Amino acid sequence: MTTERTAWLVLAALTTPGNRELGNLVRSTGPVQALDQMLHGEGISPHLAASVDVRLKPIGRTPAVADRIADDMLRGADRLEARIVTPADDEWPSALADLTAVGRGNDPLHLDTDPPLCLWLRGPLDLAEALAQSVSVVGARAMTTYGEHVTSEFAYGLAERGWTVVSGGSLGIDVTAHRGALAAGGSTVAVLACGIDRVYPAANAGVLEQIGGEGLLLTEWPPGTQPHRTSFLARNRIIAAATQGTAMIEAGSRSGARNTLGYTRRLGRPAMVVPGPITSMMSVGCHIELRQPGTVLVSSVEEIIEEIRRVGEPAVTTRAGQLREDVLDALQARILDAVKPHRATSAEQIAAAAAVSGRDARRTLPLLAELGLVVADPDGYRRTADRDR
After folding, report:
1. pTM for the full model?
2. N or C: lower Cβ tally within 10 Å for the chain?
3. pLDDT surpassing 60 at residue 108
């Protein structure tokens, strides 16, 4: 019997990433039933059926075709020292589901904007944990000295404060953001527009190798896929959806970073822009975006974090007579109650004591630390001794 995880793997292999028709089918029937319909050509459009036919023609529609495809994918991942995660895995970032609410838009080059069905990863970080507190930093490939300085400072500062810096691994602002996070000893994720076995651009080979060893390389495209314009546009939706907000630093009028910022606004995430000299062509796109409703000007790391906290998380400040615990939801309060006051314990131990998933604990504890309710140390987390009441 086909497992849910196998179904996700095979569905990803049968279509182009982001296919909205397939996404709707999966959401209405579940991945296993959706795969059965895809393999038998039942209840799907001629266009989707043709896509499946093209991919199955070399191997045929045998009863064991699903297991064969999944096994080939998993063996390929092992060979490349990579791994594949699907929505059936704990490591899957649930925030990607928000892409179901994003329309295709008017640009004919846009692919469908559905969430990916699986992700190829290389690197030691847990994906969901790394993205639980993350910011995407994007911008021009042909950056100026000003853009390089700002990006380095911002990426270093964000990583130093425990934020994962996410970007696209490209030249210019992207690679500078990755370098800044690595220099701070922090976490960084590069979302690629090609297969996990491809190094693009070649000039960034050293940095991408370092990210694969210390952070995460991520792509929805299967091995062997070369980058092309539409794959960069498709990649941008993942950068926007996977993070809590996007900061754009330098961008020309036709920069792909503006595409990422557009996705960010449509997702309801904080869309932030760093202004530049009005005489600089590399800041024209930034100034155009600053005129768009919902875009916020930022000029420091602190302002980026403040904007994300303002939109997505409860503020630290409280009314007179109100406890900081009063701003917590039920899950956060439950996890706080499981933290010991005098001895640090790991997130997994806290999760067990609170009877919640390890993933929920790992995502919630950094917020409790931001609120001053717990303290993080090398052994885990402990309750703050002197809480603000």
Report:
1. 0.79
2. N
3. no
